[in-house]
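Our consortium's second objective concerns turning raw sequence data into structural hypotheses that experimental partners can test. To show how far this objective has progressed, the report includes one record in full. It was chosen at random from the queue rather than selected for favorable results. The single chain below, 276 residues long, was entered without modification.
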Amino acid sequence: MDRLRFCVGLLVAGLAFAGSPSPVQAEAVGAATARMDTATAVNLAGRQRMLSQRIVKAYLMLGQGIAADDARTILQGSIKQFESQLAALKTYQPTPVVRTTLADLEDAWKQYRPLLAAAPSKANAVKFYDVSEAVQGAAHLLTVAYQNVTGAPIDHLIGIAGRERMLSQQMAKFYFYRTWDLYDDPAFMEMHLSRAHFTAVLIRIENSPLASAETKAAVAQVRREWEPYQQALFATRNLADNRRDAPRVAELSERVLAVAEKLVEQLVAQAQRAPR
């Protein structure tokens, strides 16, 4: 439990715009807007995909009493972060496609946000199953729209790497649906699909001609954290065992997210150093 709190603390400290609304946060959003470029926009839009899944993961944890204090911190911080990033992205709409897809994401979020106002329940968890995927899908289209602003290969690679963040949370989300006796077979199938996608994306980044030594080192770090996480996710289909292992799955999902975030940050820095 202490290790999970440590991971949550590190991640919240490292992610942009986390925390409660304040003059300091407003200043941070303004600073990001001032230096907004396509690499930054791809990163933020891609992170919205992840947050759509992380919010539900934390909601399901809280509803089942799994690391409840940490789940509450993750849930509240992720909601604030999503809304802060949405505001930042609205200041940078360089193409008609970006404007349209950003409006679609905002509409999807308006369907999602009210469900978070009530205490977690199985009834709302059922609604989140589809609604969270709608938000994730809208955020993905926005990410692609930003990638296509310049068509720069590095922006595309940032978008691909950002999917690892989302997949790390999506697998945990489906795991916690199963521990709550919801969508057992579909959720288990989705976990397998997400695992295959996660592994394929790592290989694709590693083999990219744009992958620097720093990028390959960051990928290696993701692999080190990924191995125990996937073992915990797929150790058994027995629900009693899954419930017993739930706190460890929560902890490991945050560890993988943290290193995936570092990978994306490294690629954004590389993009900003390169001539455009």
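The partners drew two points from this record. Residues 12-34 have pLDDT under 50 and may be disordered. The radius of gyration is 18 Å. Both points have been shared with the crystallography group to help prioritize constructs.
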